[in-house]
Every structure is written in C-alpha cells, then in structure tokens.
C-alpha cells in the first residue's frame, strides 16, 4: 500500500456538501468498506462539511489509505488558517460516533479535521496496482446533482428502515422466546425451591442428630479418659509394690534363693516393669486427651536438649549394627515447652531404636519456611502406606512387626502426636516397607 492520496477536492460552497458526500461514499466503496460503513463515512463527511461552511470556513479534502498501521480510510479536511479549532470542535462530538476516530488539530498555519474508518478483515488487498486503478476510476467520477443525491439518501433510508423493521421483528420473536423461557425458568425455580426446602428440613434433622451423636461421643471420650486415668492410678501402686517386693527377694540381705526361684522373681520384676510402663503410658495419654496438660513456654536450648537425648538414649543403642546419630541442631533455640518437646523426640527415637535391626537412627532439626522441623529417620522395617495413620491409634501395632529390642505398648506414637498438637504443631510419617521410616515433627517458631 501507499500513502499517496486517492483523491482531493476543494470545499468552498454549499453545493460542495453534496459532492463531498458522493465522493466519500464512492471512495469508501472502492477501498472495500461495507454498505453501512459507506453510508456512515458519507454522512460524517457531509456533516463536517456543513459545520465548516456554517462557520465560514473552506477546506481541502484529501482521501488516503495509510501505508502503515491498521488498514483504514483516512479523510483529512485542512483549513489554511489558525483559530478555527475552538469554533468547530464542540459541534463535531455527535459526528464522531459515525467513524472510528475524529480529531481536530490546530497548528500555526492551518486547522485540520481528521477522521478514519477501519477496513473490514475481508476487504480486498490494496496493492499498488489496485491503488492506481482506484485513482484512475475516481478521476473520472462525475458528481451527480443534489436531486440524485437526495434519491440515493432516500434509498439508503428505505434500506435502513427495512433493516430496522427486520430487527424489530427479530426482537419481538426473541422477546416471545424469552417470555416462554422465563415461564419455564420460574416453573423450574419453584420446583427447585420446594426440593431445596425439603432438603433443608432433612439437613436440619441431620444436624440435630449429629449434635446428639457428638454429645454422646464427647461423653464416651470423657468416660474413657476417666476410666484410663482411674485404672492407671489404681494399678500403679500395686505394680510398684510388686517391683519393690521382687527387689527385696533378690537383695543380698534376704534368704538366698535357688536358681529357679531367682529366675522366677526376675520374670515377675520384668513383667511388673512392663506393666508399670503401660500404666504410665495410659495415664499420660488420659491426661493429654482430657486436656490436663498445659504447656509451659520458654526459650529451649536445642543444643543442650540434643545432648541430653544423646546421653540418655545411648544405652538403648547397644547393637553395633545400628549407628545412633544426634546431629548438631541447625537451629540454636526454639520457644516451646522443653519437657513436652523432649518427650515427643524421646518417644520417636525409642520407637525407631526398637524396630531398627541395622543401619542408622538419626535425629536432626532445620528451618522449614516460617516453622521448624525435627526429623527422626531410621532404616528399620518400614510401614505400609495404608497403615501410616493407623499407627497413631492407641494400642495399634503393625501386623508382623517384631521389635528388635524391648517391647512396644502401642501408646508412644499416639501420645507423641497429641503432645505435638498441644505444642501447636503436627506429626507425620513417610515410610516404605523394607526401606525405613521418617517421622517429622513440625512446630511454629513462636508460640
């Protein structure tokens, strides 16, 4: 495409209004604008020409198709003189709706009115050869008389009225369809409202039943906690007495026992110690479930805590095939309850040592975003994925799992998870059978 003008004409008298209208429509047609856009361009040109002549201005009208940018028809109406912009700008606002752009620029030597209309996507390609043909055709164009232009306008008006009538008929049809649809929607709405009301009644009844079941569940949980606490408390004294009597029987100051008697007394003491461990676990779990454990927040020195855990649990790591490693903490301190935190880590480490036959048991801590994660990793037997949550149930033990040392009560992990919740965090497990387990305690950095 080229920026060379397609056509020029002078606008001096009222007769030129008809000429510029005809010429504008013809140029719009030749460059590929649709029929309605041809009428819009022609009407906009005649109205701008009328405004200019009404205020006593003449102008040179130029039709151009710019070589760059969006393909469009550009019409420029230049008046040789300044000071005219204010006189015409306010009268062109309504005309601007007929075209894509309408601007009035005032320079030192002339006032220019520019308007443009984009060519449709399906318009023919305006090659240099085609542009030359258009210029040649426009140069031979002979303007019609005002009467001819009036006849053309009447035809356009009739076509517009026919289009409006067709649109009105379509609108009436759409309104009838919409009314029918609205009746269907209202019927459906009424049906849905009735069904929703019925469903709401069912939901209300279900909530009432759930509230009743929740109250029963809370009562059962409280009863269980009281039962565990009472039984544990009542069992602790006699079990402690059994352990003490067994110690007296084997004391050097007592009568000497035979080998068989000594073995039987040791068996009694061992069983009583295991029972005391179970009783203490039940009592701790009952306190946690009853909400009787209140954390005492303080600044915990993790290096000192890790040193204590390393020392107290070292006697349990007696097998040379297992490396017991407590790493230096990557986080120096944490605000938490030192006793409860140590209890959780002790339970996790003790459990890992019981079920790890070879490899390692490792404790580490590191930041995790805005929280802190304690990780206890072992190379033990591992846990199937479907049992990852069940191991946190009271007294549950993985089928077929046998501790390498010591005995499990099935209470250590449930108690550890409840303490983690009391500390404001959570406890999770990632494990694969035959590979090992990783228990992660995640706690917030501030309580």
From TrEMBL:
Coiled coil regions in record: 147-209
The reply to whether Transit peptide figures as a keyword in the UniProt entry is no
Major localisation = membrane
Q: Which InterPro entries match?
A: HATPase_C_sf, HATPase_dom, His_kinase_dom, HisK_dim/P_dom, HisK_dim/P_sf, Sensor_HK_Regulatory, Sig_transdc_His_kin-like_C
Q: Which Pfam families would you find in this protein's record? A: HATPase_c, HisKA
**Which Gene Ontology terms of cellular component type are present?**
plasma membrane
Query: SUPFAM superfamilies of this UniProt entry?
Result: ATPase domain of HSP90 chaperone/DNA topoisomerase II/histidine kinase, Homodimeric domain of signal transducing histidine kinase
Q: Where in the cell is it found?
A: Cell membrane
User: What's this protein's name?
Assistant: histidine kinase
Q: Which organism is it from?
A: Actinoplanes campanulatus
